[in-house]
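Hi V.,

Quick status before I head out on leave. The structure for the redesign project is tokenized and pasted below; the design run finished overnight.
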């Protein structure tokens, strides 16, 4: 399906065509970066094994991101896109890790990169990873 010229490897054009058919629109630059990440030989061609290995890594990354989003949702009780100090306290108690006021302060200072007094999703991901 993917290897149009049946040479055992897929090139940038073949990958872009497949992605377009799946409704995934990527620029040529993005497809090039995808190939650079996946190609072990650096020849801008992917073997079936390289392509499948890349897809498996993407699948694992997608699973991790879905898990992180679910965890963030547990903390963000009011669904406003931020974890407040109170939400953090409640969530930590809920998972059996109650925190003192000092511990909450330390966690917020370490996590709240933009210093707005709450944790957004990006800050949460950085904390968890």
């Amino acid at each position: 399906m993917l290897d149009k010229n049946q040479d055992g490897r897929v090139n940038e054009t073949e990958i872009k065509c497949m992605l377009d058919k799946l409704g995934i629109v990527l620029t040529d630059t993005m497809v090039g970066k995808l190939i650079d990440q996946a190609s072990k030989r650096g020849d801008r061609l992917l073997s079936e094994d390289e392509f499948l290995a890349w897809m498996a890594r993407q699948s694992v990354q997608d699973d991790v991101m879905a898990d992180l989003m679910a965890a963030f949702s547990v903390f963000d009780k009011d669904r406003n896109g931020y974890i407040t100090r109170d939400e953090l306290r409640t969530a930590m108690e809920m998972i059996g890790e109650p925190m003192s006021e000092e511990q909450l302060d330390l966690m917020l200072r370490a996590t709240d990169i933009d210093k707005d007094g709450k944790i957004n999703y990006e800050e949460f991901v950085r904390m968890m990873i």
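Above is the designed sequence. The mean pLDDT is 85.

G. will cover questions while I'm gone.

Best,
W.
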